[in-house]
Design a protein that fits this description.
The protein is of the alpha+beta class. The protein has 9 helices and 24 strands. It folds into 2 domains: 225 residues, PmbA/TldD superfamily (PmbA/TldD fold), CATH 3.30.2290.10; 251 residues, no CATH class.
Length: 483
């Protein structure tokens, strides 16, 4: 693959370009799922191809191919150059922020190669969880799944970079649904939308202790039918770390994508309320709110963790919200100068070899606070919500509503009753300014969101979001699940 990448780069560079880069990618993927005691889905796939990006007279051209013969590579290079030339009448010209050349190899740690585990063993584990969930006779539907992905990428550029990195990701989880009298209640573990995903090997499956938690999940799904409806009104709201991860994703992660702010990405999910004049001026949250965009492995094994992005820029930690003040965007080499950046902060990624890199979330995380978990729950009356069930946010990422699977009423720091169909709503900046307690590092989890969509054609990628449980003052809580 390295030889093929270098050949493609040489082919396009010989034609005369300002800059060019090539990503040669080979990937392997496995998905295994069960449903009510039977295999529901088992698939494996492999892919290999090359994507070529060329900058000519200030205009980009991109082409990709899975024909890895010399003729196929030459044809893709010619097409990338042709597309770049076709933009010569465009009024604006692209200038890239400077970057160094790097020669590096990096492989993400994976204690157990997930592809060394037989599919039969995957199914046996999931079916054991399924049996435990359905041991409760009131469970109407049990679903469980695992997902594994390994991707090796060779990046080469006319700057002189040759970067070889391999990432292995794993994910697993399950859900139990109970249908009764026209109503469905659902509980998921360890998170909704497929469970937990991280940059790890099969050891993640063992760490999640899937079977151990199945009886509780089934019991809660059934108990929700007898629970009281979540009340309406303004309450102190406590969110578990997984729900807070999605809150970060929607009301901080997407708004700080600089291509949305500049208007070059608007078709899919809209733009952003974070206009350039708000940088270093907007009070995004309360003084205890500190958010970073961090792709470094030191931050954790997140789906947004890597050594170099898809422009050959090293992984970095970027302060996004510092003591409540809005201090940073996610940038690329093309957009960095729009906000006075001397270089990109390394946030360009593509779904695969056939897609053009876009600004994408890495690990956008709320840093831990100084409070104990008891302090976070220390409110005269509040609502504690767990596990996302729905989300809705406007095309500027400003007004939002979220629904959760389960909630509890909190009085004087104690859970006093289970509540069903909880939801809450607000305005992004008002919500974060209402933050008044964040639990410490021992309660912090880096969650994986495997299904973030962006761009047209759509690119679905994984992002990471770290958070500890936190409390927010006087948030509007709705009484009905908004689906």
């Amino acid at each position: 693959m390295k030889d093929l990448a270098l050949r493609a780069l040489d082919t396009v560079a010989r034609r005369g370009v300002q800059y060019a880069d090539v990503r040669a990618i080979e990937s392997r993927e496995r998905e295994v799922a069960t449903k009510n005691g039977k295999p529901a889905h088992v698939s494996t796939s492999e892919s290999a191809g090359i994507g070529i990006r060329a900058l000519v007279n200030g205009c980009w051209g991109f082409a990709a191919t899975d024909d890895l013969t010399p003729a196929g590579i030459d044809s893709a290079a010619a097409l990338a150059l042709e597309i770049a030339a076709s933009g010569s009448r465009a009024p604006s010209r692209i200038e890239l922020a400077p970057e160094e050349a790097y020669r590096a190899e990096w492989v993400s740690p994976a204690a157990i190669d997930p592809f060394s585990i037989p599919i039969d063993r995957n199914l046996a584990t999931l079916l054991a969880v399924d049996r435990e969930l359905r041991r409760n006779p009131a469970i109407s539907l049990a679903e469980a799944s695992m997902h594994f992905d390994r991707r090796r990428q060779i990046f080469v550029s006319t700057l002189g970079s040759v970067i070889d990195q391999t990432r292995t990701t794993s994910g697993a989880g399950y859900s139990a649904l109970c249908y009764r009298e026209g109503e469905i209640q659902k509980r998921s573990y360890p998170n909704s939308f497929g469970g937990q995903y991280q940059l790890k090997g099969y050891e993640l499956v063992d760490e999640l202790r899937l079977l151990e938690h199945a009886p509780r999940i089934a019991e809660e799904a059934v108990a929700l039918h007898s629970a009281d409806q979540c009340p309406e009104g303004e309450f102190d709201l406590i969110l578990d770390s997984s729900q807070l991860g999605l809150q970060i994703h929607e009301s901080i992660g997407h708004p700080i994508e600089l291509d949305r702010v500049l208007g070059s990405e608007a078709n899919y999910a809209g733009m952003s309320f974070l206009t350039l004049d708000q940088l270093n001026h907007l009070r995004y949250g309360s003084p205890m709110v500190n958010v970073v965009c961090d792709a470094r492995f030191e931050h954790g094994p997140g789906l947004g963790t890597f050594a170099f992005d898809d422009e050959g820029v090293p992984a970095q930690s970027v302060p996004i919200v510092s003591g409540g003040l809005f201090t940073g965007y996610m940038t690329s080499r093309e957009t960095a100068r729009a906000v006075g950046g001397a270089r990109s902060n390394g946030c360009m990624r593509a779904e695969g070899w056939s897609r053009l890199p876009l600004i994408r979330m890495t690990n956008v995380s709320l840093l831990p606070g100084a409070q104990s978990l008891e302090d976070v729950f220390d409110t005269p009356r509040g609502i504690y919500m767990e596990t996302n069930r729905s989300w809705s946010i406007d095309d500027k990422r400003y007004n939002f509503q979220f629904g959760c699977e389960i909630a509890w009423e909190i009085r004087a720091g104690n859970r006093v009753r289970m509540l069903k169909n909880p939801s809450y709503s607000g305005i992004s900046t008002e919500f974060w300014n209402a933050c008044e307690a964040i639990a410490g590092r021992e309660h912090w989890t880096l969650w994986g969101v495997p299904n973030c969509g962006k761009g047209q054609p759509e690119q679905v990628m994984g992002t990471g979001h770290g958070a500890s449980p936190a409390r927010f003052r006087k948030i509007k809580v709705g009484g009905a699940y908004a689906g």
